[in-house]
Structures are given as structure tokens and as C-alpha cells.
Design brief:
9 strands, 4-stranded mixed sheet, 2 domains, single chain, 248 residues
Length: 248
């Protein structure tokens, strides 16, 4: 880990980083470790090989009953990424399919090389993108989701950015630079403020602004008066970095 960044690398290239029992176990453990480490400010999720993640391990799925399918363990991983109090940045130099796209959607910020492709390939093998729909549908515009879930067609990183699945598609030689820029920006935010802002973004919207103002006023005033908020206000006035910013 460097400067408050925990990098989690999917490293099972022999099966295209498919979500095998071992990979699920190791990924979940790594996410828990990063979440519980006070020194970690930002989590970067990346991979080795030419594939970010090919989805569930179909060899393990073959012949198993509904109760024994590995997909039963997948919601925990998506939930860990989605609700992580530390922002999660996904960095893709290789393709994502099915469950791999679900993890991409669960991340807070996603950067992919322009050559990367995506697909909701479930229907092509007679299954349903059910679990991943819970992270994908809040991100992707409805018409695109309708098309891509039903056809299973492959689409590129620039289309993924257009429909809201990822934040940015960049030339492969700029992938590190673009990812690092997001990481640096995220590390400037107060840890508690970032966690609360993630919860805010995931919360249902009130019917009208007036309906939401009482709760939002309480939250805002609480953070202005908090130890973290007061440190940020002092740092701004003293023209210095607040004490939560990692030292290089």
C-alpha cells in the first residue's frame, strides 16, 4: 500500500479471472482487510492478464444444484464494493463479462482502456443477469440496459462511458495516469465525509426538496461541527492540507 491506497488485484489469468471459489474468497478477504485498515483511504481494484473478470466460473457451476452455485456468494462481494466506506476505483486494461461487469458497476469510479470490451453475456448461455442488475441498473441508462441485457452484445469502453457504466475511456498508455488522478482527488476528501457522501448518493431521493431538507440539514450541520469538519475548516483558513491527507 502506498500513500493510503490499497490495490486489490484479481490474479487468476488461467481462467480469465473468473469468479471461482478461491477468487471469491480471496477478493472478499482483501476487501474486508482494506475496509478495516484505518490507513487506507482509497481502494483500487485491478487485474493481471488480458481479462478483468469473465464472470462466474462456469466449470464450477456445471452440474451443481441451485443451492450450491457459486453465484450465491456473489452478492456479498458486490455489497462490499458498493457500500465500502472507502471509495473504490476500478482500473480495467482487459475485458469484463457478466459478473465482472457487475463489479465494475459496483465501484465508485471506473477507468478503462479504450480497447476494453464489455458484455452482459448471461442470456447467451441461458441464464439471467439477475444479481448484477442490482448494481448495473442504477448506473446505466434504461434504454441501453434494455438493449444490452437482452442481446448480450459486446460493446466497447467508449460506449460504456456514454451509457454511464464507466467514468472514462482512455488510451491504454494513459490508464495509470487517469486512475492516479482520480485516486489523488479522492484522497483529499475527509474519510468520514466520503463515507457519508457515499451513503447519501445511494439513498432514495425524497419526493421534493422540501421533504428532504430536515434530514439533510441535520447531516450537514453535524459534519460542519464534527472534529473532521472543524479540522478541514481550520486547514482551509491556514492554507494547509488537512490532517487526513496522506503524506507522500
Amino acid at each position: 500500500m502506498a500513500s493510503g491506497v490499497a490495490t486489490i488485484t484479481l490474479d487468476s489469468p488461467h481462467n480469465r479471472n473468473a469468479l471461482s471459489a478461491q477468487l471469491r474468497r480471496e477478493l472478499s478477504a482483501a476487501l474486508t482487510k482494506a475496509k478495516d485498515d484505518d490507513a487506507v483511504r482509497v481502494i483500487v481494484l485491478t487485474h493481471t492478464g488480458k481479462v478483468f473478470c469473465a464472470g462466474m466460473d462456469l466449470k464450477e457451476a456445471r452440474g451443481a444444484g441451485a443451492g450450491d452455485q457459486g453465484v450465491n456468494e456473489f452478492p456479498r462481494i458486490l455489497e462490499q464494493i458498493w457500500t465500502s466506506p472507502k471509495p473504490v476505483v476500478a482500473k480495467l486494461a482487459g475485458v469484463a463479462r457478466a459478473g465482472g461487469v457487475g463489479m465494475v458497476a459496483a465501484a465508485d469510479i471506473v477507468v478503462a482502456a479504450k480497447e476494453v470490451t464489455f458484455a452482459f453475456s448471461e442470456v447467451r448461455i441461458g441464464v439471467v443477469p439477475a444479481v448484477i442488475s442490482l448494481t448495473v441498473l442504477p448506473r446505466v441508462n434504461p434504454r441501453a440496459a434494455q438493449e444490452l441485457f437482452l442481446t448480450g452484445d459486446v460493446f466497447d469502453a467508449e460506449r460504456a462511458a456514454e451509457i454511464g457504466l464507466i467514468n472514462k475511456a482512455v488510451d491504454a498508455d494513459r490508464l495509470d495516469e487517469a486512475t492516479d488522478a482520480y485516486v489523488r482527488s479522492l484522497a483529499l476528501g475527509g474519510p468520514a465525509a466520503l463515507a457519508a457522501t457515499k451513503e447519501l448518493l445511494a439513498s432514495p431521493r425524497p419526493a421534493t426538496p422540501a421533504d428532504g431538507f430536515p434530514d439533510m440539514l441535520k447531516l450537514s450541520a453535524q459534519f460542519f461541527a464534527s472534529e473532521e469538519g472543524q479540522e478541514g475548516i481550520r486547514a482551509f483558513g491556514e492554507k494547509r492540507k488537512p490532517n487526513w491527507v496522506p503524506q507522500d
